[in-house]
Design a protein that fits this description.
53% helix, 3-stranded antiparallel β-sheet, 93 residues, alpha+beta
Length: 93
């Protein structure tokens, strides 16, 4: 089933490129809608375990979902990770 998630910290096409490249092996085609805020990431999700894997991988890249509760310190750390992911995505475009 195709599912859409609202992701935080995605700012540009560099971020979107990192998300697409990092997730394509596990989820196939990944779509990132940069016209909305928060950004919407759509992927094929088969079950709850795969959704948890998606959330874990997005968080590792610095892009948590908007429904996750984050403390100030955690939020700041994830933003820093997202800047690195963005830079990598820009270099790989």
């Amino acid at each position: 089933m195709r599912k859409s998630f609202k992701a935080l910290n995605i700012k540009c096409s560099g971020c979107a490129n990192t998300v697409k490249e990092s997730l394509k092996e596990d989820f196939g085609e990944v779509e990132v809608d940069l016209s909305q805020e928060p950004r919407v990431v759509s992927v094929e999700i088969k079950d709850d375990d795969q959704e948890q894997l998606f959330r874990k991988k997005m968080r590792k890249l610095g892009y948590p979902m908007d429904d996750e509760e984050l403390g100030t310190f955690e939020s700041t750390g994830l933003k820093a990770k997202s800047f690195v992911s963005c830079a990598i995505g820009k270099m790989n475009q």
